[in-house]
Amino acid sequence: MLAQSAPQPPGPKFGLGEARRMDALESRLSSTEQSNRALLEDIMRLQQEMKARFPPFLPVDPAHVPRSADSCRAHDDEKCDRHVETVRQPEHAAGEQVSAEFAKVKMQSRSEVTAVRFDRLSQIQQHLMDLEGKFMMEKNSREMAEGQLFQRWQQVSNDVSETRRGRDAQSRQMELLLRETSNMSDAEKQKILMQVSAVTQDLRRTIEMKDTKLRQDTLGRLGALELKLVEVQTASKESGRLVKEEVDTKLTQAKAYTEEGIQGVRKLVQEEHTQTQSRLKELSDSQNALEEGLQQTRHEIAKDIAEEEQERVKLARILDGRIEDVSDRLRIGLLSLQTAIGEGKMANVTKDADGLPSLPLEEVEKLQRKHVEGVKETTARQIAEFEEKINDLQLRVEQQDEKLQTRVKLAQQKGEESSTILGDKLEQKLDSLSFSHERLKKQVEDLQGDGGGGGRGVVDLRNKVQDMDGRLTKRIEDESKERTEECQQLRQRLARITGEDSLEGPSLEKLTRDVEGAQTGMRKLAEAVQVVKTTLGDKIKEEKRIREQETSTLRRDVERLADRSKDLKERIKHGGKKPAETK
């Protein structure tokens, strides 16, 4: 019964030191993630600072642009390098510790390496790869942002240089005109004034046509931008809703899998507890039976020893009686021999008193010695046989006692080993269950955090779109007011040029200033419209790209959680082991 109910020896277990080292690795990886997130926030803050430091509507000195670009780039590079170094230090430390753990695992025997260690090491490797990928993505995005900023600075510097060249050309033309007008007569001046008035009328019509066309184009583009913003908002809402539904579904499945796993483990624990109690009961019964057999054997051995002692005393008494009989007979024989020797000396006759021939003296002594020696040998042999039997009996008793003690010790050791094995197995299963439960709980919390972050991201995107819409509407109103005021000012200038509001005719200097002011207003209007269009397009692209990245990251996290939940369910079904180990 004991041989059938004896449990198998437990598998290899890991000590507390290795578990603590793995926990330390996980904490270092989490700190690395936090530092990466801090780096991302610093990069975004630097981009905002650079945008705030170099607004697109302010005039920029072309001589100051390269110095500002170099100083900003050097400052950003230095700060980013510091952040990269601070991030890479825990990453290098974690990588070195992971390599050390791999080396340690390779040095151990294969019987001591289990699926849990390989699983955790693979997870750590995957996590490090994800961190490296995120770091490379952040680095690439930073390089792209720097490239765009540098292109913008180049464009601004080119625009400034073109503006200066145009201004120089206009100044040269005006100088030529002034030189020519100084040598002209009054008729020619009047003719030039008529031509200038005609040009002014043409310029007024052209400005009105361009203003109308520009207004229509601006309204059309703003309508298209509004449609795009509405589409982006609806798509973001739809994607947020889908992601939220998917996250809720995965969370429900994960909770159901967790509850099923907990119920299965509880059943396994109850079964193990029942089996342990039954085995302990069998062990106690067998131990009691062994003790009863040992007690009975001791009673039998004591009884045999007492009987043997009584038999030995009896044989000793018989032997003493025989020895006394032999000694009496020996004394009688010696006396008769002495008598016969004395009579033989007196008569030289070889016959005894009965007339039978008597033996010689040497032969009688020889027979007497043989008789005495035979009695001694027989007595010594019997004593030796008794002693051998007693020694054999004592040896058998000692051997039987040793066997009984050995059996009792083996039974006790088996009982203790079975109890220890069952306790270790139960403790190992409970530890693996608690570890799996904590890991799943942490993953669910991370997924909930990611889901909440995705929802907050959609809300932030909606708020940003609304804010952008309000700013765009306000800017359109401001631009319309400015255009109206500029049109009124232009009409007043034209009236002054044509002499409608004064009695005197217009001068050449006033005409020149008015023409330059009109050209400057047109350039400002075109630049403002171009800047508004570029800024809105860049912001829409950036927000779209950020939302796509966050959605893809959230989907990858949901898929990873689904795979881990499925793996946990398979392990729970197979009793805490992988399906490959159960096969």
Key features?
583 residues, mainly alpha, rod-shaped, single chain, CCDC154
Task: Give a verbal description of the structure.
InterPro entries: CCDC154. Keywords: Coiled coil. Residues 1-36, 546-583 are annotated as: Disordered. The chain has 583 residues and is mainly α. Among the domains are: 14-183, no CATH class; 286-414. 90% of the residues lie in helices and 0% in strands. It contains 8 helices and no strands. The chain has helices at 2-5, 16-53, 64-107, 115-182, 186-346, 361-498, 508-573, 579-582. Helix 2 (16-53) runs parallel beside helix 4 (115-182) and helix 5 (186-346) runs parallel beside helix 7 (508-573). The radius of gyration is 58 Å and the shape is rod-shaped. The model is unreliable at 1-15, 54-69, 348-359 and 450-455 (pLDDT under 50).
N to C succession of SSEs: HHHHHHHH
- The percent range for helix content is over 70%
Largest sheet: none
Number of helices: 8
The pLDDT mean sits at 67
Structural class: mainly alpha
Strand portion: under 5%
Task: Tell me briefly what this model is.
The protein has 583 residues and is mainly α. The protein is built from eight helices and no strands.
How are the secondary structure elements laid out?
Elements: H1 2-5, H2 16-53, H3 64-107, H4 115-182, H5 186-346, H6 361-498, H7 508-573, H8 579-582
Helix pairs in contact: 2-3, 2-4, 3-4, 5-6, 5-7, 6-7
